[in-house]
Design a protein that fits this description.
- This protein is an alpha+beta fold.
- It contains 18 helices and 15 strands.
- The chain has helices at 2-18, 34-48, 91-104, 114-117, 126-129, 134-139, 146-150, 160-165, 184-198, 202-211, 223-227, 263-274, 287-294, 358-367, 379-405, 415-443, 447-453, 457-489; strands at 52-59, 62-70, 85-86, 234-238, 241-245, 260-261, 278-279, 282-283, 298-299, 306-308, 313-315, 318-325, 328-335, 338-344, 346-347.
- Strand 11 and strand 12 form a beta hairpin.
- Helix 2 (34-48) runs antiparallel to helix 14 (358-367), helix 16 (415-443) packs antiparallel against helix 18 (457-489) and helix 17 crosses helix 18.
- The longest helix is centred in the C-terminal third of the chain and has 33 residues, at 457-489.
- It starts with a helix and ends in an 8-residue tail after the last helix.
- The chain crosses the membrane at residues 384-405, 417-439, 459-480.
- Residues 40-346 form the Beta-lactamase-related domain.
- This is Beta-lactamase-related domain-containing protein.
């Protein structure tokens, strides 16, 4: 009998191990070559001329590495793992998590219309507004455009509710649910839904239901509060030189771009994302909810092979999201059971922009034993070319102004010269400046946003375009005046240059 009992215990203990799909081998501990990572990050920081970087690496449910590099601001304070940075669009994943928490509680239905939770929500197309679902906002296919989503960076709305109320004249550029268009407005509206359903402000909800349970002690929902705890100073490129700027507090875009955290705290967040919503003994979401957020839902036609889930982008099997605001950049990547976060207190949308993500990509390559891409091109050389081009245009316009006021020169008044003069006037003093002034505001963002994200060059281009139009108007007056004189004199053969 005893022998049978022993055999029975042995068999029942072994059977689960023999069943397919039940036993899972634990991932081998990550052997991180920290010296190599340090060398790579410092090298990229020097090549890209960025003031500070914070890095976090996790595997499974453990923090593997955190470190700060460089300085957090003009005072020379070193970046640490506890230095707060503005996250940019990484904030969208927090908003998606909050929505899924409320879905689990039965307070939100992903396939319910937005107006079910925000009865006053309305866009320019009133009928289409009724058909926008919560899921459309999460998947970025509501029909709201990227361009319109950038207008909120003007920071003219004091709250999320005010921003949503101000959308009444905003058009849809695609049919609802038909096409991916990355728009901040989608997640700003989700922030409003969170407030309406939970009865809390978005900031309070994130603090209570994400930051606190994940022990994110140095994460914030307002810039003034974060400044008291050492918020890094953001830097922008002005004609190629990194200059510190005071970052405004944009509460209206908190749900899409302006949450604040540290490398250390983001490690906790990534651990929860890797482990089905669990961080140690705390759960902020079910594994099913996390899987839905990470699941590809719609293709991004602007990139090669990229798809969007809910607050996360999926590229070649890596679940990730980047974040950008005026003077900060961030990246977070989930590759299997490995997570990487990189926070940078600088941005340069003209030259360094897309190169900043090379830091996170390189760290992931090193972790997997691959050679990181280190060739970032010549940042200085590119900016010199841009600056010289700007200087050349400014000099040419200066010469044009000088010529308007100097003593008139006479030259033979011929149909060919008149035609060339008129053509150059039309092209360089009317068509070109109008195209420059109209283009960015109707393709990228309003000029107020452009000059905020591209200080120096943005301001100069705007001023030179206005000046060119003014010179064109003056030249046109001179041309018309001389044509009249020519006709009056009958035999007159001169025109002022």
């Amino acid at each position: 009998m005893q022998t049978l009992m022993i055999i029975l215990v042995m068999v029942t203990g072994i059977l689960p191990l023999l069943q397919p799909g039940v036993a899972q081998a634990e991932a081998a501990p990550l052997a991180v070559d920290t010296a190599r990572i340090d060398k790579f990050v410092e090298m990229m920081r020097e090549k890209l001329d960025i003031p500070g970087v914070a890095v976090g690496i996790v595997q499974g449910d453990q923090t593997v590495y955190t470190k700060g590099y460089g300085i957090s601001g003009p005072d020379g304070q070193p970046v640490t793992a506890q230095t707060p940075f503005i996250l940019g669009s990484v904030s969208k994943s927090f908003t998606a998590l909050a929505i899924m928490q409320l879905v689990e509680q039965g307070k939100i239905d992903l396939d319910a219309p937005v107006q079910h939770y925000l009865p006053d929500f309305e866009l320019a197309d009133k009928e289409a507004s009724k058909t926008i679902l919560v899921r459309h906002l999460l998947n970025q296919n509501s029909g709201l455009s990227t361009l319109h989503g950038r207008t909120a960076f003007t920071n003219t709305m004091p709250t999320i509710d005010a921003l949503i109320h101000n959308l009444k004249d905003t058009p849809l550029t695609e049919a609802v649910g038909s096409k991916f268009q990355y728009s901040n407005f989608n997640y700003d509206i989700l922030g409003g839904i969170i407030q309406a359903v939970s009865g809390k402000s978005y900031a309070k909800y994130i603090q209570d239901h994400v930051y606190s349970p994940l022990d994110m002690q140095n994460s914030f929902t307002s810039t003034p509060e974060a400044k008291l705890q050492g918020l890094a100073t953001g830097y922008k490129s002005v004609f190629g030189f990194m200059v510190p700027f005071e970052q405004p507090d944009n509460q209206s875009m908190l749900a899409s771009a302006y949450l604040i955290s540290t490398a250390e705290d983001m490690n906790h967040y990534l651990i929860a994302q890797i482990n089905g919503g669990r961080f140690h003994d705390v759960s902020v979401a079910t594994a099913e909810s996390v899987a839905k957020m990470h699941q590809p839902a719609i293709k991004d036609p602007t990139t090669d092979g990229s798809e969007y889930g809910m607050g996360w982008e999926i590229v070649n099997g890596i679940v990730q999201h980047a974040g950008d605001v005026e003077s900060f950049h961030s990246d977070m990547k989930l590759d299997g059971d490995v997570g990487v976060v990189v926070l940078i207190n600088a941005h340069d949308y003209l030259v360094r922009g897309y190169k900043l993500s090379m830091v996170a990509d390189g760290i992931l390559d090193i972790i997997h034993g691959r050679e990181p891409i280190e060739d970032a091109g010549s940042v200085v050389g590119t900016h010199i070319i841009i600056d010289l081009a700007c200087a050349a245009v400014a000099i040419m316009l200066g010469v044009s102004v000088f010529n308007l006021f100097k003593r008139k020169k006479s030259f033979r008044f011929t149909p060919l010269r008149t035609s060339v003069f008129a053509f150059c006037l039309l092209l360089f003093n009317i068509v070109l400046p109008i195209t420059v002034l109209y283009g960015p505001s109707h393709i990228f963002a309003p000029w107020r946003v452009v000059v905020s994200f591209l200080p120096g060059v943005g301001h100069l281009v705007f001023v030179l375009s206005i000046l060119s139009l003014g010179i064109g108007a003056a030249k046109l007056i001179v041309l018309v005046h001389n044509l009249r004189l020519h006709r009056m004199k009958g035999s007159g053969k001169t025109i002022a240059s």
